[in-house]
Amino acid sequence: MICDGAHSCGSRHGVTLLELLVATAIGAILVLAINAMFSNAIHLRDRAYEAEANQLSRQYAIGMMKRDLANAAAPNGLLIGDMIGGQASGTLQSRAQLTLFSTSGTLTEGDPWGDIQQIEYILSSLNWPGAKKGLYLLRGVTRNLLSTVQEEPEYEPLLEGIGTLTFEYYDGNSWRTAWDSSAEDPPLPTAIRVTIVPDNSASTEPSSGPVQSTIQFTVSVVSQAVSTETEESNNAGGAAPSGQNPQADAATGTRSQGTDQTGGEGR
After folding, report:
1. Residues 6 or more apart whose Cβ sits within 8 Å of residue 50
2. Is residue 23 part of a domain?
3. pTM of the complete model beyond 0.85
4. Could you tell me which residue, 251 or 50, shows the higher pLDDT?
5. Beta strands 215-220 and 117-124, pairing class
6. What gap in Å lies between CA 88 and CA 96, rounded to an integer?
């Protein structure tokens, strides 16, 4: 063997199998660490998107319910029927929680009806494709009040995973858990308090999302129907100034709108 003077013959050798195995192990560890980091980042991003979507859904539902309740219309025996509300929760069967007539309707090209519409708020499970298990807060709307046949309401899911839904009605003296306009004078309450308790039974699992808090807000009914006794007293001694509702102010703590416990005020 001929070797030059600059290098010895013993210094020439390749990579050993042990060195190759060590380098491969270090590379695999680095790849796993980077994959875990990106996986956690994607998971946190998805959780943030889910929390934002839930918050937007809650704000939309609260705003919709406040508008319907604040603009409740008193029954007149023609197009506007009675407000009927009861206490029911925790069942998988569809059951009306509150039925009322409201002037919250808007005129569109597809719905050429007036502003008066019948509103239903119920808790029910959904059989729609892709629907999750559990109870949904549904808002049913009937726009055509002149139809000669009974029309089915158009239901819109507002919130999912609801445990209980409670409506309470302030009659000027105390809160009540049921209301029937046909047996009340005046037929509308001065304020309505809504409590929505989410079903967090499945939130103990890591993939079920964050635990949802209870929603509670109070709405002053703007359209106050005058009772027979009040109308007689007003005719005798003068009507109260327009826009004042001291009983609703006492119930809600504000002149026109109540405040919900999620931090926002009604619009």
Report:
1. 209, 210
2. no
3. no
4. 50
5. unpaired
6. 8
